[in-house]
Amino acid sequence: MVVCILVAAFEVQVRLYYGSNSYEFLINLMYSYFPAEFTVGQNMKLTRNLFPLLFQLVLILCDVTVDAKAKLTPEEVEEQKKLDNVYVEMLTR
User: Fold this and answer.
1) Does an H or E element contain 72, and which?
2) pTM for the model
3) What mean pLDDT do residues 17-44 have?
């Protein structure tokens, strides 16, 4: 049901801005994912079958972005060094 609502909302938005090149990629992507000969039931079955794979891809993407090394500014590096020194002093007491 949610897929139907999302597809309908997408279709309405695209029809409002029809002819815009920014939506052409999304339209082609939608038509490649939901072929024209598929019925709504077949589209829902396809989505249900692919959900575990899509969910794993989202989890991997989130894991990669969360685990990415932060690029600190020079001020943040100095603040981190000061904080590390405070912790070292607390542990050596």
Assistant:
1) none
2) 0.37
3) 75
